[in-house]
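DM from R.C. (forwarded with permission)

"hey, sorry to bug you on a friday — could you get me a structure for this? deadline for the figure draft is monday and I only need the backbone to look sensible"
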Amino acid sequence: MGKSEVDWETVDMPEFPNQEKKKPVISEKHVAIILSIGSALLIISSVTIAGIGLYQYVFQNPEKSGPPEDLLNWQDDFRSLTGLDNVSVNGDGVSICVVDTGIDLTHTDFADKNLSGWKDFINDRDVPYDDQGHGTAMSGLIWAEGWMKGVAPKSDLFVAKAMSSDGEGDDDTIAAAVDWCVASGVDVISLSLGGAAGFNFIISSTDSLENSVDDAISAGVFVIAAAGNDGENDDGDVSSPGSVEDVICVGGVDRMGSIWSGSSQGDNNFNLIPPRLSRSDPDKKPELTGPGEDVPILIPLSQVEDGFLPWGYASGTSAATAWVSGAIALLLQENPEIQQDGSSGGSGAISDVKQWISDSSSGQDSHDDHYGYGVLDVESLIAASNA
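My reply, with the result:
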């Protein structure tokens, strides 16, 4: 398999009026990386690869703790945009598995929280950790309960570390992590990653990750995956495994609900190579969009340099994927019968949820290859499920 270089770009910092000093920090390992992953190239849709970069802030006001006020305001904007302000559910009783680079449980916004499950497929360590940062950022969007507010903070979180400190991994390892999530009995699997699709032969694929994802869906597990970050140099379709029919594939928007320039475009037409039948509603790709530009995130303490704070912001369909994963947990809390072990759970429930996504997402009258069926609206999604 050939290798591919990923270019990481940065942008100017926004003005934070409450800060006396501010600058972006990007370590050497956040400059460029080559990911070579088995039979398919799987790129973490990470906060750095996303095209904006990982930022940390110096905050020198001794009267103020926590992240800059602008980050809290941006968080509020995204919560309002996606209808979170109008629902009371919090993910209680629903389990989510994040397959990524790990998690830093020492972050203040994870205080007094305990994982429901942890598995390290890279170094086989028993104690949770994150030596890259992306997994902590994604888990925080779902589960944080401090300055940053996760979408489903009371959910039961499982974390599988399947990517190394260099952001490298192989599709067999990630597939094994997905299998572990399913064996753990989770309701939702969040995959903020993507790569080239395999070749499908009716009942199986040449890509082991796609096969594991299909098995998860057959078991009634909701799989949420990133559309990808190649919107400015589009390769023609969303990334795999987001391209798998019953996966919920997520693109990214800004705080106003406009598409993020890097969000990958779907191709829903017939294709000969790689083979693909025309996609039909409600399975067109991507299915929906969520917060994907300048999204406030957590940064692992191990990645924070002296004088900087463990919060930042990032752009990418990774963030949107984690956000939507939390939203699906809220939907499952409201409708426990369609959870993985519920009385009406299974692949039929997944089809129903995709139809509700099509009916409830905002901003589109029909499917759009960038926006999907529209921007996530949790309030409307739950209302559609109760209709």
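R.C.: lifesaver. The first strand starts at residue 5 and ends at 7.
me: no worries. DSSP finds seven helices and 15 strands in the chain.
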